[in-house]
Amino acid sequence: MRLSARNQVRARVVGVTEGEATANVELDASGVRMVASITVEAARELKLSEGREVVAVIKASDVMLAVPD
Amino acid sequence: MRLSARNQVRARVVGVTEGEATANVELDASGVRMVASITVEAARELKLSEGREVVAVIKASDVMLAVPD
Amino acid sequence: MRLSARNQVRARVVGVTEGEATANVELDASGVRMVASITVEAARELKLSEGREVVAVIKASDVMLAVPD
Amino acid sequence: MRLSARNQVRARVVGVTEGEATANVELDASGVRMVASITVEAARELKLSEGREVVAVIKASDVMLAVPD
Amino acid sequence: MRLSARNQVRARVVGVTEGEATANVELDASGVRMVASITVEAARELKLSEGREVVAVIKASDVMLAVPD
Amino acid sequence: MRLSARNQVRARVVGVTEGEATANVELDASGVRMVASITVEAARELKLSEGREVVAVIKASDVMLAVPD
């Protein structure tokens, strides 16, 4: 499957914090810490646990840019 | 300024494609290609051009995860 | 590839309106009209043109609900 | 009220999973399963429970497209 | 129609910049400048032009917070 | 730090509802009630509690517009 999303970043799951509805998945993307908030249902369906290789998928329209003053 | 966004990735501008309303900013984040779609107004205000150092800021709730079948 | 996104809706491309940066892709999802705004780059890479079968992928956190008064 | 959002899909609530902050609302949209993550506050204010008729509202810029390889 | 979105801000259209696909709508929300990027189709359908009274609708999950260092 | 996000609204924290993963932060923006859903981690890192002055940051592409019928 190919996706229109322009940002596809390889990462490894470091940890998963589950609430009732939402799970925060902490990731290591080649040394850069990232976090994905997904539904608990999805986290379990994809069997996300420490060490799992994933791809972080982000739409270009969801990327904001910051520059130093 | 500190941000609630959990994903803050250092990158360098590779190129900017401007439309009337939207600009697609191509980035190199330590060898990973990323793209941000922002308003043309913002791209000009932040003086984004090739070589500029930026931080790509992404909310955790905007990060989707994919795993191989 | 399996995605964490909870909303995956089969659809057929009806038309594509391209700007410089963004393409609006009109879809027919079993009789329901939908529109996706993606980068022009992505629309061309995925060879989106009338009749193409696609899946519209939407994160649960991007779905708002409305009810009649 | 008319909305700028291009995607407005009629659906019926199938179930609601509430956490402290977020509620995942499972929907049946003419046989297609969808899920909306909204605040618990909103879920209660809109009195969302099984059988309720709703409209799933999604901005075009939040729709990603996937095509088979 | 009632919406699950928690942020509904009254504003007045100040100007509209149209591209082929996207329109940036500049707003005055009680003296605060805001900008909405919507499809050109939506901007025309809602007849958005200078002086028009609108409501800016934003999901809670799309609001990021910043604090001074 | 300057941000590409076009919507930066000054506000004061009114209250924080924490779940396991997500915190809903209720804001008063010059008399307009707003709510931000962020990770609990971020809410604690930014020490968000009643009275704290913040800026609500929203991408233009996340602002939907509504007009009365």
Tell me what you see in this structure.
6 copies of one chain form a homohexamer. In chain A, a hairpin with a 2-residue loop joins strand 3 and strand 4. Chain A has 69 residues and is mostly beta strands. Chain A has a 4-stranded antiparallel sheet. Chain A has a single domain (7-58), classed as RNA polymerase II/Efflux pump adaptor protein, barrel-sandwich hybrid domain (OB fold (Dihydrolipoamide Acetyltransferase, E2P), Beta Barrel). The model of chain A has no long low-confidence stretch (mean pLDDT 98). The termini of chain A are far apart. The first copy, chain A, is built from 1 helix and 6 strands; from the N terminus they run E-E-E-E-H-E-E. The first copy, chain A, has one helix at 40-45; strands at 2-3, 7-18, 22-29, 32-39, 53-58, 64-67. Chains A, B, C, D, E, F: Residues 2-67 form the Mop domain. Chains A, B, C, D, E, F: Keywords: Molybdenum. Chains A, B, C, D, E, F: InterPro entries: Mo/tungstate-bd_C_term_dom, Mop_domain, Transp-assoc_OB_typ1.
